[in-house]
Write a structure and sequence with these properties.
single chain, about 220 residues, mainly alpha, 8 helices, DUF1345, membrane
């Protein structure tokens, strides 16, 4: 499944990219290309994340999860790579912006607020996308083992359950009370745990950079 087909199956993401890119392009300011690209990334995330979280937490019943999972499974590796690449690039761009501001002996409050908002939204993007990936892998194996064992529930898990598991891995780099029972799922959890460690370290480094900008 190519990227365009996958985006068509995710109208919230496609709409967020279109609106976020247009807002960044039309933003009335004399900005560098890096700043404008970073602004487009932020606008896209600030539109996409509330929409997808509302879908996952407000309208994400088990039947809806199974239906969506079968449609999105084929393109998940590409979408995860795009999410990871975008988050890494945004962290690098924020570091560049802060270093430029410090070199000019100027780190205005809007720049620092912008940096904090970018870090928070970029960090949240990954567990959201991994939550969608866990749901797709869980329901994509047919009669094979689902790979995640949720305790205490008789019915099929919904998106809230997968998001709970994903955010736990993102915040702690380890699994929660949910059991992992298949090789494919263990590999996906391993990838997220390694990324979570790297990104949490990056968040700490950027936080120190922001504090240094405030002090200077």
């Amino acid at each position: 499944m190519n990227l365009w087909t996958q985006l068509r199956l995710r109208p919230r993401l496609l709409s967020a990219i279109a609106v976020g890119g247009a807002l960044a392009a039309l933003w009335p300011a004399d900005l560098s290309l890096t700043t404008r690209l970073l602004l487009g990334w932020d606008f896209t995330l600030w539109i996409y994340l509330p929409l997808v979280l509302w879908m996952m937490l407000g309208h994400g019943g088990s039947v809806d999860v199974q239906r969506r999972a079968s449609r999105l499974a084929d393109g998940l590796p590409v979408m995860l790579m795009l999410a990871i690449g975008g988050a890494v690039a945004s962290f690098g761009a924020i570091a560049l912006e802060l270093n430029t501001a410090r070199a000019a002996h100027s780190a205005p409050a809007p720049t620092l607020i912008f940096a904090v908002a970018t870090v928070c939204s970029s960090w949240l993007l990954l567990p959201v996308e991994f939550g969608i990936a866990y749901a797709a892998l869980y329901h994509g194996g047919g009669k094979a083992a689902h790979g995640l064992e949720f305790p205490g529930d008789d019915g099929a898990p919904d998106y809230g359950d997968f998001l709970y598991f994903s955010i736990t891995v993102a915040a702690t780099s380890q699994t929660s009370d949910v059991g992992v029972s298949s090789k494919a799922m263990r590999r996906l959890v391993l990838v997220q745990a390694l990324l979570a460690f790297a990104f949490n370290t990056g968040v700490l480094a950027l936080t120190i950079n922001i504090l240094a900008s405030l002090i200077s």
